[in-house]
Amino acid sequence: MVRAYHFVGDTLRNGKPVPADGKWLRYDGPLPVILCERGLHASVHPFDALKYAPGNTLCLVDLGGTILSDTDKHVATRRVIRARVDAESLLQTFARRCALDVLHLWDAPPIVRRYLETGDESLRAAAGSAARAAARDAAWSAARAAARDAAWAAARAAAGAAALAAAGSAARAAIWAAAGEKYRGWFLEMVNEAFA
Question: I need a labelling partner for 118 at 20 to 30 A (CA). Which of 18, 58, 70, 97 fits?
Answer without folding.
Answer: 58
